[in-house]
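Reminder to self: tokens first, then the designed residues, so the page reads top to bottom the way the pipeline ran.
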């Protein structure tokens, strides 16, 4: 609407310039016609002298002939003046209508933005309350962090959908857009989605916790970090009964792979034996002792 109003203003400016140019064309012609008429007006029509009358007649014929020659230009300029006046009137009326539509569009936009702000505020409040209620019933830090991330993702997704639907002028195009967007997201997130679903299984009742000793693809270690897409192990050498100092990172999607290369949670007997060996050796660093204690607690 703003661009349309700008175009109409440009048309009005061009019309005014064209009208001024047309008036400049009319001025010299009007001056010339006025002089011709004045030259006829000074003729003395009361004289009875035949030569004078003949001279006056020839002068009138010359003026008449000259006016006839100028008549097409006079008619064209008069017609141009009428058309420009009518066009300018129509353009001014159009600008009034466009200005009214522009103000109405601003009002509708402000109302929609206010509605969006209220809905976003309501969604944020609902998300905050539901997250606090969910976290109050969960004590595990891993589950709390995962629940917080899921709540944040769902809240942002709901806000994006609300903004799109409120500001969209055609719901049919929105549905088409969502279809294309969903197909694109499924293709782009083909590795992220299994990892996110795997995180839900890993933090379940039969999953793993930070401090648990597990074996993944032949690598044994203690869980030191768990995220939405991956988890990390601090590698432990079972033969030497000490930590190697290496950190291995695995995708959460491995829970959907074959058990031959999947995740194995070591039993408590092996953990207790490891803890006892570490205590008898007495030469492990403090970092290893803390890892063993965490394993015993897990």
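Designed residues (298 positions):
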């Amino acid at each position: 609407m703003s661009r349309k109003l700008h175009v109409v203003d440009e048309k009005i400016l061009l019309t005014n310039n064209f009208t001024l140019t047309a008036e400049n064309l009319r001025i010299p012609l009007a001056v010339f016609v006025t002089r011709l008429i004045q030259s006829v007006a000074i003729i003395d029509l009361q004289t009875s002298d035949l030569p004078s009358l003949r001279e006056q007649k020839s002068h009138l014929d010359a003026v008449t002939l000259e006016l006839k020659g100028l008549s097409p230009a006079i008619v064209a300029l008069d017609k141009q003046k009428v058309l420009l006046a009518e066009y300018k009137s129509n353009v001014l009326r159009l600008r009034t209508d466009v200005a009214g539509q522009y103000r109405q569009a601003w009002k509708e936009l402000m109302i929609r933005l206010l509605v969006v702000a209220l809905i976003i505020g309501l969604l944020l409040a609902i998300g905050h309350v539901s997250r606090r209620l969910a976290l109050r019933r969960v004590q595990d830090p891993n589950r709390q962090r995962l629940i917080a991330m899921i709540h944040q993702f769902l809240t942002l997704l709901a806000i994006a959908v609300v903004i799109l639907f409120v500001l969209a002028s055609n719901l049919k195009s929105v549905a088409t857009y969502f279809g294309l967007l969903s197909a694109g997201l499924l293709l782009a997130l083909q590795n992220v989605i299994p990892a996110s679903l795997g995180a839900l299984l890993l933090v379940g009742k039969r999953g793993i916790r930070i401090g648990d000793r597990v074996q993944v693809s032949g690598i044994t270690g203690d869980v030191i970090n768990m995220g939405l897409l991956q988890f990390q192990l601090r590698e432990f050498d079972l033969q030497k009964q000490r930590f190697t100092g290496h950190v291995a990172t695995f995708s959460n999607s491995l829970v959907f792979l074959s058990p031959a290369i999947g995740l194995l949670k070591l039993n408590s007997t092996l953990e207790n034996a490891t803890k006892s060996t570490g205590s008898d050796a007495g030469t492990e660093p403090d970092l290893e002792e803390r890892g063993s204690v965490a394993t015993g607690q897990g």
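The longest strand covers residues 242-251.
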